[in-house]
Specification:
41% of the residues lie in helices and 17% in strands. The chain has 244 residues and is α/β, with parallel strands linked by helices. The chain starts with a helix and ends in a 12-residue tail after the last strand. The N terminus is likely disordered.
Length: 244
């Protein structure tokens, strides 16, 4: 198992996590974000949409406000201070030129050393489109010919994360022990009361469901709770090889 500082080496100071909707990144890599903050790294969360169609029966404008507020509260629990909503429409996120350019612009502005995004194996169309757009944007961030008003910047590493129930074939290459961060992650997940109240679930059942993957990855890697990553590599992204 590679520890966080091997994944985020001394040249990787700016960690950019991409999520299609509020909450997704907290489930997939909330512990990693909290751990990275404790290590003194600059963690930014990019949320593609405000999740305005994710809960039936609530008007879009009201739900968007509720879910954005819940995401911001959750980030406080994780210690993440930098949240960026890009304004794409929930359930209408596509891997288009517009989406790629928006991500290239923010990757360059934030000087993204590490990008962590959804796995391309995800069964949710927004998650999958976000993954492919993130891959393309990370690759093209270093190309000066693509002009988005920000100076070209080379992304050093790209990783993907999975979500319980959305990608049964996701198998991590890297396990990160998040046992010390699990209480903060539980508090973060409890912030999403709009969703669990709509289901008629208690906050305990909600948290227990979303931590199922962490327990599984923990069992696979010899700890109580772990989050998993897979690496993505392409030209114009620095090497993914590690040294002991």
């Amino acid at each position: 198992m590679l520890e966080g500082l091997r994944v985020f080496d001394e040249k990787c100071r700016n960690i950019i996590v991409v999520s299609a909707h509020p909450m997704a990144a907290d489930v997939g890599v909330g512990g990693i974000m909290a751990q990275a903050v404790k290590k003194g790294l600059n963690v930014h969360l990019i949320v593609m949409s405000r999740g305005e169609t994710g809960v039936p029966g609530i008007p879009r404008n009201i739900l968007a406000t509720l879910r954005e507020e819940e995401q911001r509260k959750a980030c406080k629990e994780l210690g993440v201070e930098n949240i960026h909503f890009l304004g794409f429409r929930c359930n209408e996120i596509y891997d288009t030129r517009e989406t790629r350019l928006a991500l290239i612009k923010i990757f360059r502005r934030l000087k993204a050393d590490v990008v962590i995004t959804h796995t391309e194996l995800d069964t949710h169309q927004d998650h999958r489109a976000t993954a492919y757009a993130s891959f393309a944007a990370a690759k093209c961030s270093s190309l000066p010919a693509i002009d988005v008003g920000e100076e070209a910047y080379t992304v050093r590493r790209v990783f993907t994360y999975g979500l319980p129930g959305y990608n049964p074939t996701f198998k991590p290459e890297i396990y990160i022990d998040v046992t010390p961060e699990i209480e903060a992650k539980k508090r973060a997940l409890k912030c999403y009361e709009t969703s669990y109240k709509n289901l008629g679930w208690s906050p305990e059942r909600w948290v227990d469901f979303w931590l199922s993957q962490d327990r599984l990855f923990g069992a696979e890697s010899g700890v109580m709770f772990a989050e998993g990553l897979k690496s993505f590599y392409s030209s114009h992204i620095e090497t993914r090889a590690y040294r002991l």
